[in-house]
Amino acid sequence: MWIELITALALVCVIEGIMPFLSPAGFRRAMLQASQLDDATLRVIGLGSMILGTALLYLVH
User: Are 34 and 41 in contact (CB under 8 A)?
Assistant: First the structure.
């Protein structure tokens, strides 16, 4: 189980690093826009991300 968790965290790091590596200026703009969002909007985005991730895991397994 720990191997799978570490593998998942490693993949998250790789995926998260793609945008700032390919387009640092675009990443900076996106982060500035995200900092302007209110808490409720960020929570909805986070919830949507968690639901999408759970659905993908369900489909894969």
Answer: no
Contacts of 34 (CB under 8 A, 6+ apart): 42
Torsion sign across C-alpha atoms 11, 48, 37, 22: positive
Answer whether residue 61 shows pLDDT above 90. Answer: no
Going by the DSSP 8-state scheme, the letter that residue 1 receives in this structure is -
Q: Say what the pTM is.
A: 0.74
DSSP 3-state percent helix, strand, coil across the chain (nearest 5): 90, 0, 10
Contact criterion met (CB below 8 Å) for 25 and 32: no
d(CA 16, CA 20): 8
